[in-house]
Design brief:
It contains five helices and two strands; from the N terminus they run αβαβααα. The chain has helices at 21-26, 54-62, 81-95, 98-101, 108-128; strands spanning 44-47, 66-69. The two termini are 18 Å apart.
């Protein structure tokens, strides 16, 4: 999907990334296609070594998602570079919004609302290019 955010989550800074992956995958809404049942999940998931664990791989396989996660000592991170660049570019677009780059909000519900608004603005800008 060209790096467009499908779901976002807000977590603490000291929370391990391994625990956030599967709830975030489950938060992806249904994507309506031309015909048939709407697709709820992507066919494969690219992630860096921070998300690598047996529980995440097993959880993704149970959800019929092919995990493309670099394994420590086996696979190189360089292979994920072209997909990782798209994600980093989208995060940079979100950081153009000052309220998301530097968190001044004490309440996390307000910060989450600003994060969702930033993602909506990103999607709106990408749609505006086609009109």
């Amino acid at each position: 999907m060209k790096g467009h955010p499908l779901a976002v989550a807000l977590s603490a800074a000291n929370l391990n990334e391994v625990t956030v992956l599967l709830p975030l995958v489950d938060a992806i809404p249904a994507i309506k296609g031309a015909r048939g049942r709407p697709r709820h999940r992507p066919g494969k998931l690219h992630a860096d070594m921070g998300y690598e664990s047996k529980a995440n791989r097993q959880g993704l396989m149970e959800r019929h998602i092919a995990p493309r996660i670099a394994r420590k000592g086996i696979e190189s991170r360089q292979r994920l570079g072209r997909f990782r660049w798209i994600v980093e570019q989208r995060i940079a677009v979100l950081h153009q919004l000052r309220r998301l780059r530097v968190r001044d909000e004490r309440r996390d519900d307000i910060h989450f609302a600003l994060l969702v608004l930033g993602c909506d603005l990103m999607l709106f800008r990408s749609l505006a290019r086609f009109c």
